[in-house]
Design brief:
By secondary structure, this protein is of the alpha/beta class. The protein folds into two domains: 157 residues, Rossmann fold; 67 residues, Putative phosphatase, domain 2 (DNA polymerase, domain 1, Orthogonal Bundle). It has a seven-stranded parallel β-sheet, with helices on both faces. Helix 3 crosses helix 6. The longest helix is centred in the middle third of the chain and has 19 residues. It is globular. The N terminus and C terminus are likely disordered.
């Protein structure tokens, strides 16, 4: 009886080899087309909005600068991105204006802030390069997609509509629908529940430290987009499974390898 297969692996030795070694030998032998076809895709993909699907963060920074200047509030412009990009508005308002703000004051300040954001970004809403191609690719494969963002619903719906993407997303969750903002995993766990999928079968695309932390705490794979923070900062400060410069570096094959146990390790960087 032959003990070696066409791969050249001696199967009599397999009983004494570590399981990972056997698996790696087989993967190395398999033709690439066969290998990538059989790797697992995520059951669902969840996108953050700002800094992930759309280049809106410069407008978010601008709205805060205008707000602080209008109200005579001192701030450090160099540190501002790390403070205001990611957390919900209420956290930033309380940080700068005190913990004793009333719900009415928070609502009033919030409407002023976000009305200015929608007015300023309106003519300039554009998806990042590669976003539409990747979303259409996932849609063709029947992968469920959703958006889960720290943005208020009014902003989120405005941006999705302006991008012409409403038909692609099965669920859209805004900060209005949760009790605990990122880095708490609530928004991602709630999104997975609405999609009817196991959190471990989800891939999240994020750009912020708190968003990546929320995705990982939810037990999901997380791809960090180096649009808001540098790849070096993301690697140092987060537990992202994969760091990419943009959606132009992402494909379904990328996700297949991410969900394969021999795929990317924490903080793996895809070259630009």
């Amino acid at each position: 009886m032959m003990s070696k297969g066409v791969s050249g692996i001696d199967f009599r030795e397999c009983v004494s080899l570590p399981r990972q070694r056997i698996r790696d030998d087989l993967l190395n032998w398999m033709p690439i087309d066969s290998m990538t076809r059989n790797l697992v895709l995520p059951a669902a993909i969840i996108f953050d909005m700002d800094g992930v699907l759309v280049d809106s963060n410069p407008f978010h920074l601008r709205k805060w600068i205008d707000f602080f200047q209008a109200h005579g509030i001192p701030f450090d412009e160099q540190e501002l991105p790390k403070i205001v990009l990611g957390p919900p508005n209420d956290v930033t308002f309380r940080r700068y204006l005190g913990e004793d703000l009333t719900c009415e004051q928070l609502a009033e300040f919030g409407e002023e802030l976000e009305a200015n954001f929608r007015r300023e970004i309106g003519p300039y809403v554009r998806a990042f390069p590669g976003v539409r191609r990747f979303i259409e690719e996932c849609h063709t494969q029947g992968i469920a997609m959703a958006v889960a963002s720290a943005a208020i619903a009014k902003n989120l719906n405005f941006l999705i509509s302006a991008l012409g993407l409403p038909a692609y997303f099965r669920e859209v969750l805004a900060v209005d629908e949760i009790s605990h903002p990122k880095p708490n995993p609530e928004i991602y766990l709630k999104t997975a529940d609405k999609l009817g999928v196991n959190p471990a079968a989800c891939a999240v695309f994020e750009d912020s430290f708190v968003g990546i932390a929320a995705a990982k705490r939810a037990g999901m794979k997380c791809v960090a987009i180096a649009s808001t923070f540098s790849a070096e900062d993301l690697r140092r400060e987060t537990h992202a499974d994969l760091i990419v410069p943009s959606f132009e570096a992402v494909s379904l094959q990328t996700l297949r390898h991410l969900f394969n146990s021999a795929g990317a390790s924490r903080g793996t960087r895809v070259p630009s």
